[in-house]
Amino acid sequence: MVDQVVIWLLLAVAGAAVQRISDVVFGESIEKLVYSLLVRRRTAEVSVAGQWHSAFEWISDDDGRARVDRQTLRASQRGRRVIMKDPGGPDRSRLRLQGTVTAGGVFSGEWEEWTLSGRHYRGVFQFLLARTGSEMRGQWVGFNRYDTVQNGSWVLNRA
Predict the structure, then answer these.
(1) Is there a smaller number of Cβ atoms within 10 Å at the N or the C end of the chain?
(2) For residues 101 and 129, is the Cβ–Cβ distance under 8 A?
């Protein structure tokens, strides 16, 4: 039992030493280095500009039932900044997303929706871009008309 404690203490000291050396030599933590080496995706070369089919789930304030809204969004991109818009129309709501895409293929930002009934909703989102660049899957969070936090899944597919 004492041997195991000594080994555990030695490993803890060695881990702290490696962390400190990494901070000094590389200027960033070992966690960030390992993440960038092992988890980085090749999506940085993929543009998200163009048309996307959007489908997000939400719970109706009126009857409590789950619903799915589907829209087509047009994405424009300048560097890492992305804006996606659905121009709306006389028979549907308008949706706008704006955010940034990281080199790892994470698209994060804010969304706004203007409904046919005149309501204005807003919140945040985060997507992970597939390696193929043809799909993004993620989640949204926002407030309903009663100021209750809601969330749901959201999928974007290239048109």
Answers:
(1) N
(2) yes
How far, CA to CA in Å, does 98 sit from each of 14, 30, 107, 127? 44, 31, 9, 12
Looking at the chain, how many residues does it have?
Answer: 159
pTM here is 0.69
Nearest CA-CA partner of 153 in 128, 132, 119, 118? 128
Q: Which amino acid is at 13?
A: V
pLDDT tens for each residue of 93-137: 899 999 999 888 899 999 999 988 889 999 999 999 998 889 999
* Separation of alpha carbons 50 and 74, rounded Å: 6
Domains along the chain?
2-38 (no CATH), 50-158 (2.40.160)
* Structure-block tokens of residue 95: 């949706």
Contacts of 113 (CB under 8 A, 6+ apart): 93, 94, 95, 96, 120, 121, 122
Question: d(Cα 47, Cα 63) in Å, to the nearest integer?
Answer: 39
Nearest-angstrom CA–CA distance, 157 and 134: 6
